[in-house]
TrEMBL record:
InterPro entries (alphabetical): FHA_dom (IPR000253), SMAD_FHA_dom_sf (IPR008984)
Sorted UniProt keywords: Membrane, Transmembrane, Transmembrane helix
Membrane spanning residue stretches: 217-237
Organism encoding this protein: Dulcicalothrix desertica PCC 7102
Name of the molecule in the record: FHA domain-containing protein
């Protein structure tokens, strides 16, 4: 089986910043058109602990530009006390700095500065001609090798696996283990003699994968596992004659 789903798993999550201060990490999400970062709880919506002294009460403003954000030092009119730096250059309070995913900035130009990291994981609209995955069926009957692996790129050298082509399905998303079919807690094989009036359970399992559109975007990751269980199939044997 050829593995072709080698792209990283994609999550439709908002952009965020992480502030690193002496091993402590603070993550703050960017979801609005404008955000304010600082220690002043009445001014900032991105609130920083008051004991983080290197962060000003009104440290920075984030303004959305398309799918990205531009950061401005200070409160929009006045620069912050310690400033924000990119590669040693201070960010302007007027022109700002356009952030790209993975950008790292420093609050305060000192050895104990606070590191600000920006991440933008927002997914753009997929192409119009994208091909949706068709229904797939995995027949469990006769499979002897467990667990069965489901995912975007399960082990290609294992026959008991199913690939699910969707960006939010992990490379190895789930494993299915057999629980066995049993009689009174014991496994039943082809050589087992079933006594008269013994109830036997037969379990059928089917899996359905579906992907749907939502709000002009592709809502991947809808992995619906329908497990239909047929229980209560009883074997009511008539009076037996000689068994060879």
């Amino acid at each position: 089986m050829t593995v072709s789903f080698d792209k990283p798993t994609v999550f439709d999550s908002p952009a965020f910043i992480e502030l690193g201060n002496k091993g402590e990490i603070l993550r703050l999400y960017l979801e609005k058109d404008q955000h304010k970062l600082g220690r002043d709880p009445e001014w900032a919506d991105l609130k920083v602990p008051v004991d983080w002294g290197l962060v000003s009460r009104r440290q920075a403003i984030f303004v959305r530009e398309g799918n990205l954000y531009r950061i401005f030092d200070g409160d929009g009119t006045k620069s912050s006390t310690h400033g924000i730096f990119v590669n040693g250059t201070r960010v302007s309070a007027s022109s700002g700095y356009l952030l790209t995913s993975g950008a790292q900035l420093e609050i305060a130009k000192s050895s104990d500065h606070i590191l600000l990291t920006y991440s933008n994981a927002v997914i753009s609209k997929p192409p119009e001609n994208i091909v949706l995955p068709s229904n797939r069926r995995l027949v469990l009957k006769g499979i002897k090798e467990f667990p069965i692996k489901l995912g975007r790129a399960p082990n290609s050298d294992v026959y008991s696996s199913m690939q699910l082509d969707a960006p939010t399905v992990s490379r190895l998303h789930a494993k299915i283990y057999t629980n066995g079919n049993g009689a009174y807690g014991s496994l039943v094989d082809v050589n087992t003699l079933i006594p008269a009036n013994t109830p036997t359970e037969i379990i059928k399992t089917s899996f359905v994968y579906s992907a749907t559109w939502k709000n002009l975007g592709l809502n991947w990751g809808v992995l619906i596992i329908h497990i239909s269980v047929c229980i209560g199939v009883s074997l009511w044997l008539q009076k037996r004659k000689d068994i060879v």
